[in-house]
């Protein structure tokens, strides 16, 4: 009878637990990126490593519904609920973009019970912008 070949793991340290370890995060940064078509809420720790993220698309909204304030509120609730279970108590909020979900996401974050140290708008603004296209000749 043929001898069976032992399975060799590709992991060097031989760990078998999942990579998603539950970290205790007391303070973090909540980034809200609100475009006209979607709203993305990313929660990072103070060093900038992503802890959890959620968007209107992953919250179950498709098509034009993703750009609505309700979809942004739902995405923010999903992200906040997860990080509050990991122990987050205080956070800073950075909001970027011109979308409709800006205010709704901020309102959902305020209602969650996390103590906000500051709220900052980091939307990039051009200081004169790109050169316009040349004048049209007909």
Automatic annotation (TrEMBL):
A biological process term (GO) from this entry: translation
Keywords attached to this Swiss-Prot or TrEMBL record, sorted alphabetically, are: Plastid, Ribonucleoprotein, Ribosomal protein, RNA-binding, rRNA-binding
What residue ranges are annotated as transmembrane? none
Q: Name one GO molecular function term.
A: structural constituent of ribosome
UniProt-annotated location(s): Plastid
What's any one GO cellular component for it?
A: ribonucleoprotein complex
| PROSITE patterns, per database record | RIBOSOMAL_S11
Pfam family of the protein (one): Ribosomal_S11
Q: Which InterPro entries match?
A: Ribosomal_uS11 (IPR001971), Ribosomal_uS11_bac-type (IPR019981), Ribosomal_uS11_CS (IPR018102), Ribosomal_uS11_sf (IPR036967)
HAMAP family this protein is in?
A: Ribosomal_uS11
So what family is this one in? Belongs to the universal ribosomal protein uS11 family.
The identity of this protein, by name, is: Small ribosomal subunit protein uS11c
Identify the species of origin.
Cuscuta africana
């Amino acid at each position: 009878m043929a001898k069976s070949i032992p399975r060799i793991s590709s992991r060097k340290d031989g760990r078998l637990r999942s990579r998603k370890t539950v970290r205790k995060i007391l303070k973090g940064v909540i980034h809200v990126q609100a475009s006209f078509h979607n709203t993305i809420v990313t929660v990072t720790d103070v060093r900038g490593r992503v802890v959890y993220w959620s968007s209107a698309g992953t919250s179950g909204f498709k098509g034009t519904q993703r750009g609505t304030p309700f979809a942004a509120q739902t995405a923010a609730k999903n992200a906040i609920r997860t990080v509050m279970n990991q122990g987050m108590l205080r956070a800073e909020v950075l909001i970027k973009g011109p979308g409709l979900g800006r205010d709704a996401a901020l309102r959902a974050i305020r209602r969650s019970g996390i103590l906000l140290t500051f709220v900052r708008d980091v939307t990039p603004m051009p200081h004169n912008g790109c050169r316009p296209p040349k004048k049209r000749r007909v």
